[in-house]
Structure formats: C-alpha cells, structure tokens
Amino acid sequence: MRASDLEKFSNLFLFLDGDQAVVKSYGQQDKERAKRPHTKSRNGCLACKRRRVKCDERLPCGHCVNRREKCERPGPRPQAKVEVPQQPSSPSHHVNILHIELFNHFEKVTQFTLAFPEIWETMLQESFKHEYLMHAILATAAKHMSVLRPQYPRYAEAAIVLLNKSIQSFRGTLDTPITHDNCEARLGTSTLINYIMWTELGFLEGQSILTDPEAGGLDMSKDLLFLLGSGVRQVFYSAFPIFKEHDSPFIAVGKYHPCDNLQEEADKRGTKWREIMRRLIYLFDDPSYQGSPNQPPSPSTQEASPSPCVMDLDTSAFQSPETHSSSSAAASPSGPVSEWTESCNEDYLQRIIERTKGPVSGCTASCDEDYLQRIIERTDNSARSTRYILDSRTARSIYERISQRLAVLVSFIPEDGSEMVPLPVERQLDIERYCFSFPTLCIGPFLPLILENDSRALVVLYHTYRAANRLLPFDKTWWAVERAATMEKLTLVELKARGLSADLY
Known about the structure:
This protein is mostly helical. The protein has helices at about 5-10, 45-50, 60-65, 95-110, 115-125, 130-150, 155-170, 185-200, 210, 225-245, 250-255, 260-270, 275-285, 335-340, 345-355, 365-380, 380-390, 395-410, 425-440, 445-450, 455-470, 480-495, and strands at about 10-15, 20-25. It folds into three domains: about 95-230, no CATH class; about 255-305 and about 395-505, no CATH class; about 320-390, no CATH class. It contains 22 helices and two strands. The termini are far apart. The relative contact order is 0.09. One of its GO terms (molecular function) is zinc ion binding.
C-alpha cells in the first residue's frame, strides 16, 4: 500500500455498537480529490477539429505530421456586432428627472406666483400637445428655482437651455395661422417668455453706466423685455375672435381691467394722481426731455401737442381701448365728436366702421378691425372707438395712456417716504397685473422712444420700476425683484447724468 493510501485511512477507527460494526473518522477529514487541470484547445487546426481530437496547436501539429495531412488553421473569428440604442433624433424629446422636477414645481408652486390664475391649469394641459409651451413652462419653473436656490447653478443653466428650445420651436409656428387648436398655447407661451424676460438683465453687460455712473450711458436698445413684450399683445389680438368662439379662459383676462380698479381705489383715498399725470405729460412736451444725448428726437414724436393742462379732457381718453369702462366714461371728449371725426380721414373711418358693424369673423380680420369691434361692443360709440384706434398711431397718445395708469400707481406711494397704507389684497393683485403687463403697453411709436433712450421714456421707466419696488410683494413676484431694483437705480442715474429731474411733485 502506498503512503498516500495509509495517510488516507489513518484517521478511521472501527467500533462495536451492539451487534453492528461502525466506522468513525477522527481528526482531519478527507480532502476532496483535486480535478485534473484541463485546457481546451481553441486554436486547433481544421483536421483536429473535424476528428474532435485535441490539437497541440503547433504548426504543423503532431497529429497532422503523423497522418501526413495538410495542417490548416481556421480564419479569424468575426467580431460580434454590438447594437447601440439609438438616441432620439432631437434632444428636445429627451425627458429626464430634472424635467419632471421642474414640471412638478410649476404645477405645485410657480403657477401660483404668476398673474392670471385662470389660465395656468389650461396651459398645463395644453403643454402635452405643444412642445414649445412645455419648454416654456419648464424654463419658467427653472428660472423660479434658480431664484429660490441660487446655490444650485443647474437650474439657471436649465432655464437658458429650455428657453432656447421653446423659442426655436415657437418660431417655427409663426408662419402658420392661429387656429382653435393652437391659439391658447401660443398666447400662453408668449406670456411665459415675457415673465422670463423680466428676469433677464444681460443687456446691461459692458455698459459704461456700470463703471462710471456720473457719465451715464444707459442703453435700452437691446432690452428684450420691450422688444418681445408687444408680441404678447399682437398674439392676443389675433387670437381673440377664436377665444370668443370656444369660451377660452383668456376671455376673462381680456375683460378684467386692473387699472379701473386701481383708479377707483386712488379716488377713494383722495390721492393726487391727476397732478402726477399732468406733470408726466408736461415732461413729454418739454424740449429738454426730448431725445437723448446720442439720439435726436424722433420725427414721429414731433407732433402738434395740445396744452399741457390735459386734465380738462375726459381721462377715459387716456386709457387703452380695451380697459375703457362705463365707470370711467362719464365725460365726453374735448370738443364735439363730430368736429373730431371731420378732421380724420373720413374714407378710412367709414370703411372701418362699416366693416366692423357685424361680428368679426375668424382670424382673417385685421388687428385694427378686431380691436375696433371690441371697443364698439363696449362703448356703443363708433366715433369714439375710431378715435381710440387712430390715436394709438401717435407716440403722444400712447404716452398719455401710460401716464394715466402710471400716475395712479405712483399716487399710492407717500410723498414724504412714510410707510404706505396697505392696499386690499385684490388691489395688490391688480398692481401685479399692471406691472407685468406694462411692457405690452409700450407699443407703436412709443416703443422707439424706449429703444432710442429718449429721456421721456426713461422717466416713465424710472417711476414704473420705482412703483414696482414699493408696491409689489416680492415674496411672490420673484420675477420682478432684481429688475425693479436695478433699473430704478440706473434710470435715475442716467437722468441725473443728463442734468434732468424725475420729480413729479
């Protein structure tokens, strides 16, 4: 017996258990028998593979030498093709966890910080049909999150990316007509982009006024808030006939007039808004406020102007047509209406009045016709309605309407700097709507006054931002905080650098 066998049985003992013999093991257990190592031939010759024998993989191999056969090796094995999942053709279709977070934030938080609460639930539903609206919603939520959590730069970065995607896809729709299926989505997208533009101050980068305030040099020509603001108004006018057809929530937005409510509140408090308005309009006619140091007055603004003492006129004439109401139309315009209509292009007036006697059909009607039709429905006075639409063609008339609204707002701010008497919650909401809508009022020939840095426009901007700073609840109106504070300061600095005063008292 071999030594290995003796070692194997050295720990076995035989015991008697009654009539039975029992073998028991003590000490080290038997080791499992190790498997003989085996290496499989993977590069054998074809002859060995055919005979299913192990090839020694030499060239030629031993089997082929013994059998005097040709020893051939197989060709290289083809590499397996790995299928890589195709990415979506457009990154805009890619949804990630951040998008879900932003959508949830808009639904739960952001929408309640925006004006016009009657529309946002509809916009959330419409966003699943229109890519540009979904991106606008996500971009607005991302911007809101960047304000709430500035320590996380991913939100600010996401806001930029999503806004660009929204604008790109939105731009592609502008050549197509506004229809029942897209009218709400288009206006909702325009409104959200306007909110984001309130937070955008990139146009100030590199301006000399930031480094040398005494020298001035404020340039408003690239402020997207005003360049894009009028687009909201234009979309609303184009879509309004369709809104009426299917009772859109945007109808409530068009019928609500915050300026009327604020004026009524100002009259209750006995504020001096009429004096403030008179001062604003006086500045429009003051040659020292016309133009800017680098830009002469625009020819379109050099119009024959009535006396600065305009409060003899009906103040409703200074309201935009869509905010005119019976509460503010007690007086008649200065001079008989017939005298005014005779001074206008009678053919043009007659043509428009005839075309707006019946309801405006679809979205084929021009902006002027739809505008006028809605005014006639509310005022029942086609001559006054036509006056409004033609007056809107002049910078001064628009300035007067803006001045009337702004004067009411400014009148709530105490002259002595004391604490303001709190306004009712409803009026706070009216102020919020006014401030947000202000850029959409700067249309027609008044818009160039802003973009050309005209001093009269800067006075309006200064007091608008000043009122926003004093009157808005910034814990809610996050979109206005930075712009209101920054632009109030810079517009006043610019006026002082020009040797002008913004005082209205």
